[in-house]
Specification:
Elements (H helix, E strand, L loop, with lengths): L2 H4 L3 E5 L4 H12 L3 E6 L8 H5 L5 E5 L5 H11 L3 E4 L6 H6 L1 H19 L7 E5 L25 H21 L6 E6 L1 E3 L9 H11 L3 E3 L5 E2 L1 E3 H18 L6 E4 L7 E2 H11 L6 E3 L16 H7 L7 H16 L4 H13 L12
Parallel strand pairs: 1-2, 1-4, 2-3, 4-5, 5-6, 6-11, 7-10, 8-13
Antiparallel strand pairs: 9-12
Helix pairs in contact: 4-6, 6-7, 8-10, 10-12, 12-13
Length: 360
């Protein structure tokens, strides 16, 4: 991340009341960006956003991406140079409960935003965040490159795959002729302090440790590309800088995840974080049946490394240790914003993993 790029830059951020969006808000404000952020009201209790609201320099708006009039009004008022679109219905189980709402939020919401941005004349770059689950996953165990076919079996994954197609259409039809790069970023499974969502592994582990009970895992052997929220966001911000500097979306999509050797099973993460939080029995097998979920998911992030010289700064052990320590410190009464700023400062002092020309 280059502070000179972001200082004074008008940034429109969607989804700022979510876990990853709150971290993005703190980082952007710290870099001196002029941030207008809009999202639904916080969906969790407690809420990381509500813990920092009013204490970081962000213009906060509550709005629904599915309401075109509200989206247009916010975009017109913000006059953004940079757009980071992070708002989404981001949970697989919720997509089974409400598939229509998931498609409306993720696909139609993105289309509404891009349509509103077509009249913006100050744009330098737009980055839409999708997911590592956009790929057709045949469970081969091979790592997905950005050229892999898009798809998705569950409604969440399918909605993100469809979002990729919608973004590509708008990029080629409307934004490329204006020389405004519009691209997508496909992040892995992001963890870190301050996520209090339901039906997510780390928040469930935190709540279970506080209660002294095990988490019930549906698929403990499933592997995911776990990464720290700061590694993921550093990739997004670096990508935006690159796009704005080139004026063209080339490449039009990038994966961001851990080094390939850093893949971990759900049970491994549960045991490591549970142990650090003092839970002697952190998990047990849940009784089925469950909605179908893919068991193997790996990302090939070599294109991001080659394009941006981006690599993770935290390995798997450090990612887990930083995450668990955040929750332990928070549970002991420490201030959430101070904990976030401490992690950001510590992260910025680190060197990238594999900076010796080895590929992820």
């Amino acid at each position: 991340m280059t502070p000179d790029f972001w200082s004074g830059r008008r940034v429109l951020l969607t989804g700022h009341t979510g876990f990853k969006g709150t971290w993005a808000s703190v980082i952007l404000a710290g870099l001196g960006a002029k941030v207008t952020a809009f999202s639904l009201a916080p969906q969790t209790n407690p809420s990381l956003w509500q813990m920092i609201e009013g204490r970081v320099d962000v213009v906060n708006r509550v709005a629904d991406l599915r309401d075109p009039a509200s989206v247009i009004a916010i975009c017109d008022a913000a006059e953004p140079e940079i757009v980071l679109h992070m708002a989404a219905q981001a949970q697989v189980l919720e997509s089974y409960r409400d598939p229509v709402g998931t498609f409306n939020s993720n696909v139609l919401g993105t289309v509404n935003l891009l349509e509103a941005l077509r009249s913006s004349r100050q744009l330098r770059a737009i980055l839409a965040i999708t997911s590592d689950k956009v790929y057709v996953n045949l469970e081969t165990g091979l790592a997905f490159t950005e050229a892999a076919p898009l798809g998705g079996a569950d409604p969440y994954s399918a909605s993100k795959g469809a979002t990729e197609i919608a973004v590509k259409s708008y990029a080629e039809s409307f934004f490329s002729p204006l020389e405004v790069p519009l691209a997508t970023a496909r992040g892995g499974n992001v963890i870190g302090g301050g996520d209090f969502s339901s039906d997510r592994l780390v928040p469930d582990l935190y709540r279970a440790a506080r209660a002294g009970v095990p988490v019930e895992l549906r698929y403990p052997a499933a592997t995911r590309p776990w990464q720290h929220v700061l590694d993921c966001l550093a990739g997004y911000f670096s990508y935006v800088e690159y796009l704005a500097g080139r004026g063209v979306a080339d490449p039009p999509a990038l994966n961001f995840g851990p080094l390939e050797k850093e893949q971990m099973a759900v049970a491994e993460v549960a045991e490591a974080i549970g142990e650090k939080l003092g839970n002697r029995l952190p998990w047990r097998q849940a009784a089925g049946p469950f909605p179908s979920e893919k068991q193997a998911l790996r990302l090939d992030c070599s294109l991001a490394a080659a394009t941006l010289a981006w690599r993770p700064r935290l390995d798997a052990a450090e990612t887990i240790a930083w995450t668990a320590q955040w929750y332990a410190d928070f549970a002991s009464g420490k201030d959430a914003l101070e904990l976030m700023q401490s992690d950001i400062n510590r992260y910025c002092s680190r060197s990238a993993m594999g900076a010796d020309n080895s590929s992820p």
